[in-house]
Amino acid sequence: MKILVINCGSSSLKYQLLDMEGEKLLAKGLCERIGIGGHLSHKPQNGKPVFDEDVPMPTHTEAIAAVLDKLTSAEYGVVASMSEIGAVGHRVVHGGEKFAESVRINDDVMAAIAECIPLAPLHNPANITGIEACKAVMGDVPQVAVFDTAFHQSMPGKAFMYAIPYEYYSDLKVRRYGFHGTSHRYVSKRAASRS
What we know:
Distance between the termini: 31 Å
Number of strands: 8
Radius of gyration: 18 Å
Largest sheet: 8 strands, mixed
Shape: globular
Helix content: 25-40%
Order of helices and strands: EEEEEHEEHHEHHH
């Protein structure tokens, strides 16, 4: 199965296309200046030429469309058609207390990500935009959210609570969440496998 992995920022989109049989990188790239011109750097890993040019990207939807166009193009592509892409994985910065693992995206998950916007106002809106853009361009291809905060959800209360009035936690959700959980999970598993 080939999986498209996406990390949306407010004006950028990083991506990789992976063939999970053999865990092989097929292509990677970066869309920059989304909403303010647009630039795409697409790097196929199959010997085809690199594409590194300005491309109009008024929104993330056009950025996703540009990425898919390059992934499937005769000159720069690494797959014959979008039907080869079996799933999309999205890095989502904040899952609040709701998510302790990756989940398949549905309407309830989208609502929960939106509820976390006050906790990550610069990141979660861009993550939502990227998910919606993939749905608009790719239709019913399964999408999965991988949360930066999920890895740290096993912290006990004494570790995540601040010494502040309890209402800040109960009403405003102020607590330690832990971030960069995808990196922490990877590093901890690699370290554990070497012992």
